[in-house]
Amino acid sequence: MAAHADGAEAYPVSAILERIRREFSATILGRRSDARFRDTDNPDLLGTYHSLMGAGPAKSVSRQAMWASLDHASHRITRKGQQMRVRVTGLPTDIEAGHILAFGSIEDDCLVRIHSQCLYGESLAFQDCDCGPQLERSLDLIQAAGSGILVYLNQEGRGYGLLAKARGYEISEKNRLDTYDSYLSLGYTEDKRDYTLAAQTLAKLGLSSIQLMTNNPHKLQAVRDADIHATVIPLRTPPRTLREADDQAAKRRHGHWLPTDDPPWSPDL
To answer: pTM higher than 0.85, yes or no?
Structure first.
C-alpha cells in the first residue's frame, strides 16, 4: 500500500471498487450511495471513496467506478447496419426485475428509455399496441445520438404477465371493454408496473439529468422522485390498426400523453 508525502496511506482504486462492489447492492435503495460508509472506522478509505464518488468532474470517475463494481458485460452490437458498444447489467437488487443496457458513453442529459417487456409488440410484431414501435423509435434516437440507456423491465402485461394480458384481450373482445377495464373485471388493478427501482438505479449510476423518452407520466414522476431532472422526449407512433388506436385512446383516458402536431401536447409538462 503506497503512502502520500504527508505520511497518509493511499488506498488503490481497486480496493475502493471492491468495497463499493460489496456494499452497492445493500445500499441501492437508500437515498445516499455511501450509506454504509458513514460509520467506517477508516477515515482514509472513506475520504478516498468520496474523492471517487464526488460531484463535478469526478462524476465521470464515479460512473466508471460504479460500472466496474457491477456484474456487467460489454460488447459491440450491429443494428440497422451500424455498430455500437453496449454494456449490460441486471438491476442491482433484483436481476429478475430487468436489465440496464447502456450504449456508448453515458453522461448527464443522455437519452433514456424505461421500457416494460411486451412479447406481442416486440418479438411477435403484433400490431395491437404501440410497445414495439415505441421501443424501436427509442433505439433509433439512441443510435442517432451515439449514446443512451435502455432500462428493460420484466413487467409483461402491465406487471401481471403474459397470460393476464391474453385474458384481458379476451375480455375486451367479448365485452367491448378497453384493456384497463378488462383488467378490473378480472380482479386485477389497472396497472401493477413500478418504475421506482429503475429510476433509483439511474441515480446510483451518477445521472442527475436525463432526456426521458416516454408518454407515461408515471415514469416521469419516478425519475423526479429519484432526484433526477428529466426533459420529456415524446414518442409519437401513429396507430396501425383499430385496436392500437383504441389502446392509445384508453391510455389517454388513463393519464398518458399522446403527442400531437399542435403544442402544447401535454398541459402537465
So the answer is: no
